[in-house]
Structure formats: structure tokens, C-alpha cells
Specification:
Arc Repressor Mutant, subunit A; 7-stranded mixed beta sheet; alpha/beta; Rossmann fold; 2 domains; homodimer
Amino acid sequence: MPPPKQKTETPDPLDVPKAVVNRLSLYLRELRHLLRAGKTTISSSELGSLLGFTDAQVRKDLAYFGHFGHPGIGYRCEELINAIRSILGTDQEWTVAMVGIGNLGRALLGYRGFVDQGFQVVAAFDSNPEKLNGQIEEVPVYHIGRLTEVVRQHNIRLGLICVPAATAQNVADRLVEAGVAGIVNFAPVTLSLPEEISSVSVDLSTELEQLSFFVANREQPR
Amino acid sequence: MPPPKQKTETPDPLDVPKAVVNRLSLYLRELRHLLRAGKTTISSSELGSLLGFTDAQVRKDLAYFGHFGHPGIGYRCEELINAIRSILGTDQEWTVAMVGIGNLGRALLGYRGFVDQGFQVVAAFDSNPEKLNGQIEEVPVYHIGRLTEVVRQHNIRLGLICVPAATAQNVADRLVEAGVAGIVNFAPVTLSLPEEISSVSVDLSTELEQLSFFVANREQPR
């Protein structure tokens, strides 16, 4: 018989530190690898050590969202995967609009990880859709001028911005006006967005700069 | 006459919090936009407000590395750009090896931002280099079996891992053995690396999960 689940008061998810939410993603990724490798249960210390965290860190992070461990067993991988997916909101389908079909946009459209996680690019936009023959990777490509209309029509919830820095704010403003709830910004610029719009930024140059900082400073001991 | 520069004791750069180094990248990006737009000086409060930080935050971050402001003037954009580039190590050339030429690898090779920041991909590796006719975007493509030899020959300092999760650790081990000092990991897996190797990870699924968490929890107020 499974132990009785204790319902405790969980905090408002929006008050949870970003670093915790980030580690949830890492736990989820690791649990999936483990389950695929045939492992059905795992302890907090095993899970932590795979990621370089302590067992206390793992337990504390998960405690924000409820009780997931079983005495004498640890975590059941599949159960914890489902719980984390539900917390992260990736147990639902997310409709995505991609704006800008250059090199990066193309690569992202070909990236299986999106679909595997429930992110479905249902429309792409470019200022020159003709060059793409109206579709790419089975996703219809529209002229950027039709963004508001198409986003509303398909009730698209997330926007991916893959345009150059100079036009990114304009695209963001249009996506917000069209009604998206979240934006992933790949353009190397800080966007100004209304408070109710969630966003994440991915800037490859920034990542490389972080790396060069640490390598350069290791190589030149002061 | 410029005010005299005060030399103060700066901490070991490796003790500087990662969040500070990350914000340096954002300051740099913003300063470049400003300089391109013709602005030659800026105050800490102006710079901060463009990025959503306070002026105190800007001053505190920069103070880790020295004194950069001029009384009555603020920061000189070009001077601060050069200082931050030197701190981040992007004033030097970085030779890069890219391993895995799938969709993402191709997009990254076509990404101008790398070259603009001093990152030069000098060799690419794939298990099937023939399909690429030996080069892509003017970068020579070698069979993965030649990784150690080529990395050593060209004294390559950074490795970009764009292979699937299942082979990423193996590729990382080979890069380390060949002598790289830093790794950018695009594979959705946590790598186990020697302590002296610096690394950054970019996992697009993780970024999307962060976004879906915040959107999902805004849309379902608890």
C-alpha cells in the first residue's frame, strides 16, 4: 500500500526562485535518462550526485511543490517525471509562433527537442516568405505583416524571436499585441515587455563570453 | 585632463559571482548598441534603466574590476566596452572546435555573432564528414576519429558539443584529453568534467520549460 500523501501548503509558484525552477528542468532531464536506462527508483543523494548537487538541495527544491519521496524507496522515476512536467507546465501542448527564418530559425525548426517537450511551432513568419515557398519543415510561413491575424486565429501562446537585434523589439511589441503570453528571445538585445508577459533570453554570444571569462582568468593566474 | 585613475585591489576574478559576469555581458551588449547609435557617454542610472537594473547594481558590478566612471561625465562608452572585453577575455582570439554537424551545428557555423566576438571555428568534426564534402561554411570538416590530432595541431582552446545526448560525454572526454580549456555543451545532458575545465551549457528545452512554468502559473492563479 502506498504511504498516505500529505498535502502541505505550497507557496505561490511565482515566488519560487528561478534557480529552483532551473534545477527542476535538470532533474527532469536526468530522470528521463535514468528511466530510459531502465532505472525505476532513485534516492535524492543519487539524483543529486549525478548533477553535482547535495541530497539536501534536491529535497529542498522538490519540497516547494509537495512530497514526492517514498520511505525506503526514494523517488519513483516515472511518478516524479510526471509531477515535474505538471509543475513546469510541459504536460500541456504549447502553440508557438516563430518569427525570423534565418539560419537560427531554420535550425530551431528542425530541432526535435521542441516537439518532444510539447512545444508545437504552428506558424513561422519572415519578411521574405517567398524564398521559403510558403513552408519549412512542414510549418507554414507567413509574411510578417500577417502576424497579429495568424497568432489570434490559431490562439498561439508563445513567440520565438529569431530576428536581428534591430527589429526584435518591434516584433516583440507585435507578438504582445497579438496576445501571446510568453516570449523566447534569441536576438542579442534586452526587450522591454509588459510585466504580465513572461520571457526567457538565449544569447549565444553571452554564453561564450561567460566561458571565455572563466578560461581566460584560469589561464592567467593573478 | 582626465581624472587620475585610482588603482584598487580587485578580487580574484574566479571569485566574482557568475551573475555579475553575466551582467557584464549585458552591459557590453547595451554599450555597443549605444555607441552604434552615436552615444559616447552614459551614466550608471541610464545604463541600468535600459536593462532593468538599478544604478547601484551597475556601479557595484563594475567595482569588482576597477574604477571606470568619470566624475560629471559617467562612463565613456568606448572605454567601458574595451574594459569589459578585456575582463571577459573577448579582446583575444579564441580558436574553437565544433563537434557534430547536424541542424544546430550548421546554424551555429552560420552565426555571425561568433566571429564578431572573436570566436573562430577552425575545425568541425562529424562521424560522417563525407556528406559535407569535407567543409562547411569554409570550415574544414574532419572525421571524429581525428579529433585529438587536429585539436592539438591547431592548439584549439574551446570545444562546442553539438552531438546527441548519448555521445556527448564521450566527445567531452576526447576534447579534454586533446587539451581544450573550455567547453560549450549544447547536448541535453549534464557532463562530468575535470575541475580545471570551464564549461557552459545551453539547453533549449530547459529554457522553454522555464518559460512554460511562468506562463502556466500566471494563467492559473492559485
